[in-house]
Design a protein that fits this description.
The chain has about 350 residues and is of the alpha/beta class. Helix content is about 45%, strand content about 15%. It is built from 14 helices and 10 strands. The strands form 3 sheets. Strands 1-8-5-4-2-3 form a 6-stranded parallel beta sheet. Strands 6-7 form a two-stranded antiparallel ribbon. A two-stranded antiparallel sheet has the order 9-10. The two termini are about 30 Å apart. Bound molecules: nicotinamide-adenine-dinucleotide.
């Protein structure tokens, strides 16, 4: 069964959270000098790498550091942040400053959003994923047991301050993983953006202009369907159904997959589901596979049993009569929600290891 393509969101961005780009640390400092914060939640690695800037940014405000990675998106880590909000008696008249990658923004935003039913926060995204994706759209939350983002809510920051220079200290693996989310945005958008990202090395630092173009794709989908009620925002989950499963399963391994690496696997696998259903020309899938393989962002499958795999899938998606609804690519720039037999997903997963060596 196939369904009509999801409508493309309109080109204009309306009523979005204020987003400001800063070409230098001094410009960010100038902006922050007009604000007061009750407490700062900051990624620990970012704090050590950018200590003098962050100390200047925070002035007398207490800085609470958070270890990055999925470990920070857990109940104990959230509880620690709530305790700090309690300790510093943060109330609704005050603001929290959040500085870090997607994990830090997700857990800290959730802590702020749930404290006294919500205190305002300002987000300063520091990783590529955070600067093009996680800081936008208002989703905050944590993982629960093995499931990704199972506890969460929608809460928009008061403003988003972006200093692209933060990306200069990101290691190459994280930078490349960040580009994968950009690649997904470009797959949804098609046209010139797709051509541009296809020709961009994932080891390169993005320009401010490309950051803005990639963010605008997400913002346009979000504004058409802010609470995922119409199916339109679901397009942004392209590659994420399988991607989230691989990310969760890999957490027990010595070297867990980064979010973007898991999404890269999901993108190439889900695109092949499209091919198998006769929805996507095989040539397009080959182009995606060759780019992601060439950028070395595709990893082997983590070890798993089908029982674990199905359990994670059923937590993420409703399985009805052996089928799940996921967004699938029809062509570059066009996506539809499709009912996929779980067995078809499994079949593609079984094929994946052979693509890595071909
Ligand atoms: N809320 C959303 O809409 C949304 C969207 C996309 C992804 N996410 C979530 O974001 C997370 C992935 O984001 P991420 O890759 O930024 O994760 P992350 O926050 O764990 O950061 C990855 C690593 O980069 C480090 N880091 C961050 N900024 C740095 C800098 N400037 N210099 C050096 N190191 C830096 C961190 O310490 C960490 O080790 C996942 O949990 C994913 O589910 C959320």
């Amino acid at each position: 069964m196939s369904y009509p393509a999801l409508p493309k969101p309109s080109a204009a961005i309306r009523n979005s959270t204020p987003i400001e780009y800063f070409e230098s640390p001094e410009a960010l400092l100038e902006k922050a000098s007009h604000e007061r914060f009750a407490v700062v939640f900051c990624d620990g690695k970012v704090y050590s790498l950018w200590k003098s800037l962050i100390d200047a940014l925070c002035r007398e405000t207490p800085v609470i550091t958070i270890a990055g990675g999925e470990e920070s998106k857990t109940l104990p880590s959230l509880r620690r942040l709530w305790k700090k909000l309690w300790q510093y008696k943060v109330d609704k008249g005050q603001k929290v400053l959040v500085i870090g990658g997607g994990s830090t923004l997700d857990v800290s935003g959730f802590a702020a959003a749930t404290w006294k039913r919500g205190v305002p926060f300002v987000s300063v995204p520091t990783s590529l994923i955070a600067q093009i994706d996680a800081a936008f759209g208002g989703k905050v939350g944590i993982n629960f047991r093995q499931g990704k983002n199972l506890l969460g809510t929608y809460a928009h920051p008061e403003s988003i301050w972006i200093l692209p220079a933060f990306l200069t200290t990101l290691d190459e693996r994280s930078l490349k993983a960040g580009w994968v989310e950009g690649y997904k945005h470009a797959l949804l958008e098609g046209g010139e953006l797709w051509e541009e990202i296809q020709a961009t090395s994932f080891s390169a630092l993005p320009s401010t202009l490309i950051l803005q173009k990639l963010v605008s794709v997400k913002l346009r989908y979000v504004q058409e369907d802010p609470y995922e009620e119409k199916g339109i925002r679901q397009a942004l989950n392209l590659g994420h159904t399988l991607g989230h499963i691989w990310e969760s399963l890999s957490q027990r391994e010595e070297k867990p997959l980064l979010h973007g690496e898991a999404v890269a696997m999901g993108l190439v696998q889900e695109a092949f589901v499209s091919v198998q259903m006769g929805l996507l020309p095989e040539k397009v899938w080959e182009t995606i596979l060759s780019k992601l393989k060439g950028e070395k962002v595709l990893s082997p499958l983590p070890s798993f049993t089908w029982k674990q795999w199905e359990k994670l899938l059923s937590q993420d998606k409703k399985i009805r009569e052996g089928r799940v609804f996921i967004p699938l690519l029809l062509e570059v720039g066009r996506v539809a929600l499709q009912a996929i037999p779980v067995e078809r997903l499994k079949k593609v997963v079984r094929m994946y290891p052979s693509w890595l060596h071909a």
